[in-house]
Every structure is written in structure tokens, then in C-alpha cells.
Design a protein that fits this description.
The structure is a single chain. The protein is of the alpha/beta class. It folds into two domains: 124 residues, Resolvase, N-terminal catalytic domain (Rossmann fold, 3-Layer(aba) Sandwich); 36 residues. 52% of the residues lie in helices and 14% in strands. It has seven helices and five strands. Helix 1 links the parallel strand 1 and strand 2. The longest helix is centred in the middle third of the chain and has 34 residues. The radius of gyration is 29 Å and the shape is elongated. The C terminus is likely disordered.
């Protein structure tokens, strides 16, 4: 089985932490007869979603070059829960397995499969919660009488009134106040005909 080792530490001032991760995971891979395709080493905060070597690893996973990703613990993938869930979901979609030494997670096992399913369910729950929050927010805005969606285009009668007021010497802001529309709506309408503004 082709495996990739992914390691990360927050700073590259010392490589001791990464070397320890590589040593431990290499020993496990050799004991199981796994072929190590590549070792990916990042020196960046786990809160960062985009990291050079992690990005490279994900590309190789999508190309089918890697069957299993090995980490010393899940925090190596990231400390940002949302990002970690996305990474694991991408692994599941591409049928890439995960092996985490500290948490004893091996998604080739029945327990590991349960872990992947839980991650998938958590991701779906999170998406559902976001959708429910958006719907709730829209409903609340409607109850308060707020108009939702894109603003209507200025009608012809409104446009005529804007021109009339402008020709009478009213400023853009005065026109907006009188007609109950925004300064930018007045400006857009008059700018169509390149009338200089005198505010």
C-alpha cells in the first residue's frame, strides 16, 4: 500500500519535532509493509488552511498517487476544526485512508470507517445549521419589514423626477432624500448621461 507521511510544526527554527514525527511514522509503515511514497513537511501554524506541503499532498491524493495519509496526531492536519473536517471529507471522497498514531485511528478498520462516517455526518450537520441560520435570518428580516433581494431598477417616472430635480439645481443627496432613494442610486442614474455632480 502506498502511503504518504504528513508532518507539521509551527516553526522551522528546529527540525527536531518533525524528525520525531517522521521517525515514528516510518517505523509503523515499515512494520506494516507499507510503501512510503513521499514525506511532506510543513512549518506553519495549524490554524492556516493553506500550507504549501499540505496543498501538494492534497493534489497527489486527488491524482491517486497516495492510498493512505499518515500523521502523528490529528492536530498535525490542523487546529481549525472546519478545515480539518474538509480535509477528511476530501480524503473520504477520493477513497484515501487516514492513519493517526496518537489517536489510534486507521480508517482501513471498522472503527476507522465509523470515524469517517462521523466526520461526514458532522460536516452535513454543520452545513444544515448554516442553512437554517440563513433561513432564520431572512425570516426575521421579513418580519421587521426589511426588503430583501436586489433593489429595483429606477422606474421611468422616478428617472424623470431625478432629472427634473437635478435641472432645478438640487444636489445628488438632496434628490435622494426627497425621493427616498440612496445617493448612489441617484448618481448611477445621472452618470448614465455624464452629468457632472455638484454636491
Amino acid at each position: 500500500m502506498k502511503v504518504a507521511i504528513y508532518t507539521r510544526c509551527s516553526t522551522n527554527e528546529t527540525k527536531q519535532n518533525v524528525e520525531r514525527q517522521v521517525t515514528e511514522l516510518t517505523e509503523v509503515a515499515l512494520n506494516r509493509g507499507w510503501e512510503i511514497v513521499k514525506v511532506y513537511e510543513d512549518y506553519a501554524s495549524g490554524s492556516k488552511s493553506s500550507r504549501p506541503q499540505l496543498d501538494e499532498l492534497m493534489k497527489d491524493c486527488f491524482k491517486g498517487k497516495v492510498h493512505t495519509v499518515m500523521v502523528s496526531d490529528l492536530s498535525r492536519l490542523g487546529r481549525n476544526l472546519n478545515h480539518m473536517i474538509k480535509v477528511l471529507e476530501d480524503f473520504r471522497i477520493k477513497n484515501v485512508q487516514l492513519f493517526s498514531l496518537r489517536e489510534t485511528i486507521d480508517t482501513n478498520s471498522a472503527l476507522g470507517e465509523l470515524f469517517f462516517n462521523l466526520i461526514c455526518s458532522l460536516n452535513q450537520f454543520q452545513l444544515s445549521q448554516i442553512s437554517e441560520n440563513v433561513k432564520s435570518g431572512l425570516a426575521n428580516a421579513k418580519r421587521k419589514g426589511r426588503k430583501l433581494g436586489r433593489r429595483k431598477v429606477v422606474s421611468q417616472s422616478m428617472s424623470d423626477k431625478i432629472w427634473e430635480l437635478r435641472q432645478s439645481g438640487n444636489s445628488y443627496r438632496d434628490i435622494g432624500k426627497q425621493l427616498g432613494i440612496s445617493f448612489m442610486s441617484v448618481k448611477r442614474e445621472l452618470d448614465r448621461f455624464y452629468i457632472p455632480e455638484e454636491c
